[in-house]
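[[Sequence with tokens]]
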Amino acid sequence: MGKTSAVCALCFQRIRPERNEWRHYTIEWGLDLFGLHTIVLSWGRIGCARPRRRTLSLPSEEDLLAELARQIARRLRRGYRLVWPGDELGQWLAGTGQGTAFSSRVA
């Protein structure tokens, strides 16, 4: 990942009309102004004006990557579907050996 101030993001959705459930979950990560690796989690009903947010500050890139892997696995276990950036990421993860469970759920 390297030393960069770029922010990256993944967006997930879980839509179940039979349960009146229209949920979104976004994971954003990058470096803050103090050089800490930061993950911002936001979630709520699709279209809500103010989603809930939680910020995690991590001391190293290794910790950041481990936490990202945990958060992605948790969303997929709970039935969320990756909607952005899309299929390219699922194909890349499958090619890196991160598991086919992720790429098979990306639609």
Q: What stands out?
A: The chain has one domain: 8-102.
